[in-house]
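Problem 3 from the worked examples.
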Amino acid sequence: MSAKDLSTKNKNPKPVDNRKYIRLNVVFPVEFQFIDPETSGSISEIKQGFTRDIGKGGICLEVNNLEEGLEQVIKDGKAKLDIRLHVPLSRPETKAIAKIAWHEKIKSGYPNKYLLGLSFVQIDPKDSKRIYFHATRVILTPAIIAVFFFFLILGLAYFYSIDFKTQSENRKLVEELSRLSTKKSELEKRLMDLDKENEAVGCKIVLNEDKIEKYKTQIKDLEKIVGDAKKKDRLIAYLKEDKEKAKEVIKHVLYQRARFNRKMGKLGKENIYLQDRVGKLSNQRISTEDNLKELLSSFNTVEEKNISGMYKWIKNHQNRRTGLVMSYEGDKNLEEWAFTYDQSLACQCFTLMKDQDDAKEILDFYKNRAETSEGAFANAYDSHTGKIVEYNVHSGPNIWLGIAIAQYTKKFKDEAYLSVAENIGRWLILLQKQDKDFGIRGGPKFEWFSTEHNLDAYAFFGMLYKITLDDAYLEAQNRTLEWLKKNSFNRLECRINRGKGDATIATDTFAWAIAALGPQLLKEYNMDPDQIMDFAETNCLVTTDYIRQDGENVKVTGFDFGKYEHLARGGIVSTEWTSQMVVSFRIMADYYKGNSEFNKASYYNKKSDFYLSEIEKMVISSPSKIGQGQGCLPYATQDDVDTGHGWRVSHGTRTGSTAGTAYTIFAKYKYNPLALE
């Protein structure tokens, strides 16, 4: 129905339409309120209507179910309208004051329906142009979409050809890393075996030399006895009985001397063999070192490219709507889940790589959008919607989020998110004060005390103190240390307990004790860091089968979640926890290098290099379009198995893990997340 037709159907016909702008059939939601034209005071509640037509000078508004009193106001034409237009895809609403140019009642009874012709009295010219532009755009959209889809199809064809090429190249790169890592780890293992054998041979030589010296001493003693016996034999020759006894002694001593001489001869021959073996071992070691150097010339380039690919894999899985990074790629049960702990690791990866914008996207979510529960952040959110998917609130993930903020603040000298970290810090202090020993529970609704959480808290409080110089954080850190000394240090076995009253072996407590407290502080409190690392290798190190993407079965040596023989599943290697141990081996190496104990520093560096090579055997090509064939790490050598700590490994034989991938990057670049660089 045209505007002219409508004007004939009411008692106050519309004036001739002399507007220079055409009307467009576009529907926008509109909120409005009748106001007194003189006082501008409201004379009705807020109502809602929808546009029928719209132009630069005014709108045609459809309104339903007006009260009888408001119908009379419309007929009298004595009111204006305070309106709010909600233009799609436009963030701020459009405000305007309008008068009623004409009206028509197109439906009577309940509900009634009116058409109101409104003329703008007061509106920002920019807003007027904006709504008219959007209305015009809606008319032109079908044609634009058709053109867009034509070029989109052309673009997609080009993109998929390029994408196929990129994925193919990335997969080849991953395969090359796996092949070279296997060879590299074999050479590194050979070096360590040679060093071990060489050390054992050296010890044997020293032991034999000690025995020779001992036998020489015993021979001298025996010779003295012989001399004494001969003297006695001469003195008591007249006593037959004594003479016979002396002869027996002499006979026995001569026999013993001969026996010792034979042993000395045998040991001498053995030492000649061992000296020759040392020479051969030395030659083998030189040859192995040469082979390793030759391999490293090509391996380092391939490794750097793959580490770069792993970082891109993490970036590619960051949702641009929420800023969150998907925790697992390939696990249908955890699809789109973003664990808060994993977000901390991803954020620290971005910080490590000086990628401030991507780090900010994660932190913006927790500062501005994330729902909280029990005064803190939930364990996991949907990476697409930002909604909570795991409502449990644990201390650990919140601490790690605070650690990520502290690392970001220090790196970029940006305190925009420091308030979030301090809120977490104050929340932890409240939890701490609820325990007589000042331990931090697993969360507000949990009664258990984890060593892992308290190690994290010790590091986090220290970071907050360094940034803010607030003594409250230093006091909290000292209280946490006292709790750790009392409840976590197992001095009898020279290791760390899993928690208060819980002597279960958990590999990450060993790694994080080194990373959070440091070797020097552990020694000061009678906890030998060397023994802690040795205990972890003795009890948690496993060698197990892993089937690579190409179907090849390889042996991988790394760290399980605990003492694996206690579990029916057998041993599994965790990429995240093994990488944590690699970081700790690096810390030990740096500590001894700083103390000029270069042999020990070399020992720990060799360990870290070997275990990192073993983990790199497990790199897989991302199976998704988002991943583009980039390399990433699965969480473990097996999927869907019990860790022994109350949770299971993710599903999917080719599930990429943000935690495993991020911690491998940390291990490569010698980054300790529990220390403020």
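Problem 4, a separate protein:
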Amino acid sequence: MKKFKLLLLVLLFSLSLTSTAKNISIAVLAFSGEEYARTSWQPTIDYLNAHILKHRFKLVPVEPNKIEYLEQLVQQQKVDFIITQPVTFVEFQVKHGATSILTLVDESKSSKFGSVIFARSDSDIINLPQIRGRSIAGANPKGLGGWLIGYNELKQHNVDVVDQSQVSFLGVQDNIVNGVLNGSVDVGIVRTGVLERLSNSGRIDLTKLRILNQKKVKDFPYLLSTALYPEWAFVKASHTSNLIAKQVASTLLLMSPGSKEAVARGYWEWVTPIDYQPIHELMKKLRVGVYKDFGKISFLQYVKENLILSAMFFIVLIVLIMTGLRVLKLNNKLKVVNYFIEQQNNMILDSVSEGIYGVDLSGRCTFINQALTDIMGWEKKDMLGKLQHEILHHTHADGTPHLSHECPVYETFMDGTARFINKDTFWKKNGDSIFVEYSTTPIKDKLGSIFGSVVVFKDITQQIEHQQLQKQYEQDLEHVSRLNTMGEIVTGIAHELNQPLTVISTTAFAGSKLIESNQYSASKFLDIFSTLSKQAEHAASVIKHMRKMSNKDQSDYSLIDINVRIKGVITLLQSFIKDNNIRLMLDLDQSLPLVFVQAVQIDQVALNLCKNAIDAMSIMNSNKVLSISTKCLNEAIEVSVIDTGSGIDPSIAEHLFDPFSTLKKNGMGMGLSISRSIIERHYGNLYLEQSTPGMTIFKFTLPIQKKS
């Protein structure tokens, strides 16, 4: 009996705990007050809650003067995401390892903004140098559109207003405009779009203001005095999992442009993150925030840094000593615990979260623990002495009977072989079923004779539901990535289609002129119709392939010729190859067997690899060669994509297939990650074989279906 109880304890502690869902907090920088932030951003949070059912998202408005409080929340892992202006994002990126997963597009459909520098129209200030010595107002010292961008423009014109003018910060940007109009300040700096908003609402007359250093940027709708910088960022804290980040990013990317959720806050949509390096450079130049001491190294700072290193060494040493002492103490405690377990095992069994029960050789229950009662609703009086199969295990999930001779619990004490079942169905007392994973182990007496078996199980219903939801999110993200790649080549597709359409138009016009002149013959018209047919087929093949690539629901497996799919991808990329003066080399093994795959997904992988190769060579002036080859291995086919670009840095190559890892400034960083996931689901392998200056080789393999 003692060995039996010890066996139960070993099985108990070998099982992992079931993960639970968590609440996700999204902080937002509330420049216009917490109440406005709650009203305007809550629809976006509601949208996430409606589309991501696994987690619950909560809005946490934080006013700009409480940034230190927000930092504490991030460090304590009480905030998972932040919606904020770019300066604050850079601060959190440098100090806490935060990353941007999305960039906001405002209601003007622009992902960038700048500053407007202005005075009254009746003022004698007509250019930036005349601001010297005058009073000037901004929003706050770390405000981007409401101060820093405009301040940088003034410094570029040799106007250092901090030393030469009276500067005041008025908080809400509406106050800056009113201050200029009523004459309390001479010059104001506000974010682009503020003046138009106040004018459209009838609060100001734009003719009473003079825009200083006015600039025109194509397709930018607002008055502007400066360069443009990236819009607000949707920021992932360093502790937030990549899985949740992918779910949030893909969900917001799929939000309809101009939706009611977006309009509530005054933006248009979210896009994949753009490059925020200009914000870093601006802050370095102005020595603001985390870059306030940029370029400055003092003796005291040097001494301080070395003292910190020494202190850290001794701290680590002390921690190691304390850890060693604690290990010794724990070893002594372990001896006491082992004795306690041996004496009090029944109490321990009732304290664990997994369900445990035993059966004799007839299949009747001999004991159950408290967790089984909590999970299943069956009491001891309901099960003890009764057939467990008739109570817990009588029916499959689809409603068909589960025969007793097929029950793993019975098979275990019949053949003495332990079993682990990763998915099965148990039935609660109330008639509901749950998915479980369980182990069943034979119980032996001192002579080695089997007298029953013990079952340890846990409820995995939520885990199964999570897997199904995760699979759907992965499919959605693959579709977004495919559309993103297709969006990059739209111009090329238009160029590729223009050629056959031009030929069709010209040929048709020539045919009409032949008819008018009565100088036609059957042979000439056969030539004309043949030309029209070939060009129409070419245009149709390009359109057909592009429509297949953008089709989210096309997921059927079929036998395909990989050479044909590669030629189709080359068709879509032909204009990019020509425009970049790239020489294309194809070495396609014509004896390749067919492979059983999802054709569109394999197209996506090939397109992504080829497009990356073209991009890698776009900055080169010569020796640009794209090589694609196929060959047959023992049990698989191999596809190689080779370019003559500058190669990939080894430090980057290590994380090349990680989510959100990218070499492109405006890339989402999901192409290679999704491509590898697609190939692995087809039981193949995608890898970087070599990358040196002048030679980068990506390869993927697909298994050959064996004939039965």
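Solution to problem 4. Residues 112-230 form a domain with the D-Maltodextrin-Binding Protein; domain 2 fold (CATH 3.40.190.10). The first strand starts at residue 23 and ends at 29.
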